[in-house]
Amino acid sequence: MNKTVDIMIEELQKENEELKKENELLKTVIDRIHESVYVVNEKDEIILYNTESEKMEGLDRKDLLGRKEEDVFAQPYYFSEEVTKKILKTGKPLIDQPYWYNLNDGRKTNMIFSAYPFYYKGQITAVYVIFRNMNQIGDFIAITLEMQKKFIKEELSHHDGAMYLLDDIIGINSKMKRITADARRIACRNSPVLIVGETGTGKELFAQGIHNASLYSEGPFIPVNCAAIPDTLLESLLFGTVKGAFTGATDTPGLFEQAEEGTIFLDEINSMSFSLQSKLLRVLQEKSVRRLGSKVQMPLHCRVISATNIDPVEAVKEQIIRSDLYFRLATITLNIPPLRERKEDIEVLARHFIRKCNHEFGLFVNDISEELIRFFEQYDWPGNVRELENFVEGAMNFVHNKEKMLKLHHVPEYFGERLFLLNKDLQNTDNFQGQHTAIHNGTLQDALLETEKNIIKSTLMRNKGNISRSAKVLGISRQNLHYKLKALGITNK
Fold this sequence. Notes:
- The chain has 493 residues and is α/β, with parallel strands linked by helices.
- It folds into three domains: 2-135, Beta-Lactamase, CATH 3.30.450.20; 152-337, Rossmann fold (3-Layer(aba) Sandwich), CATH 3.40.50; 342-488, Helicase, Ruva Protein, domain 3, CATH 1.10.8.
- 47% of the residues lie in helices and 16% in strands.
- The chain has 20 helices and 16 strands.
- Strands 2-1-5-4-3 form a five-stranded antiparallel beta sheet.
- Helix 15 (370-378) packs across helix 18.
């Protein structure tokens, strides 16, 4: 008898544990969905309030659970009378209803909601409400469009326009990750974006990624290199012409017109003359364009993304960029760091370019030597990511079909000369603090490794073994310095 009771108790405990686990799972799922969900019981007390509800209304569920709606939400509050209490009485759901009300912090929120009665043993015991924030619908549409772009990316690669997505931006550097996340966040808006970065950092890649993640992604992407086109020609290209505007002129739509419902990307905007900048400013302010020789203003509906390879604030001070144009273009600014400031990305990028060359050249390289990576990390890369890609491609041209690793001897001779000059410059710096530099009879590789080792040792000594300070002086990350200490056999004592 006792044994039977013990078995029954054990089974009940198992069943209770399964119910607890299932309940916890359902709560977790409800907290992960993008819709706002909350539940009130028959006493009009809030018994469930998910994470999205907290985000939307700026409230903490701990302050709400167990309390009545009218006691916690901003007054006047009509939702309880108009929806939840009404459904408790009638048992009739309300589906896809628009609604707006004031939040506790004074903001207004617009939403679409559906509310349903919950029956238990034939009785209505609760009402659950599912909200969709109208302000977030644009974000969801943009995300959906970007996902769709991923599936048709192969098709896009055969057409002119924006081939790259924000997911194509490669890097493990924390700043680059943050900038990419910022670009994704602002993509669904239509505010102008100014991208700042040195030549070769990937400004157009960001511009294409923002376009493909935006509500304009179904429209054209029109890139314009302002530095490559003379001003007289650039004006007619941007704004268009009518027949007779000047000798040989025809009725031609400008690039702004061609970018309708899409994105126009003005690269190297700092190369545009002051007079043309003033005309561009008028177009941006009035959101309309007039072709050269025409009296008709045509409305525009496109997103404007611009880029500069110099500091725009300094460019304004030096009167290279008009201040009023800068403020118009730089509603949102993204600053892309040069490759020398994110050296932890060098190996990741190099491996990506190796895979790309494998595909193009029919090779099977699957690794890169540590020596070559160290040389890459010592170089300042004035041409940034574009220069690194060119170096890797050049080296891959010297790889034999059966080779599996990219090594130092594959690097073109002119790059080896640059590394030699870099090594010579390092030896002339005060990093050695008067120490005698030994003459090496071995290879350039041995000389560079010994130089790197001496510089790191000297820097650690000057900073009393402090890793963070030493890494900052050397211009590398702490993780990178730890890696070098291990690879070069340096003990930090």
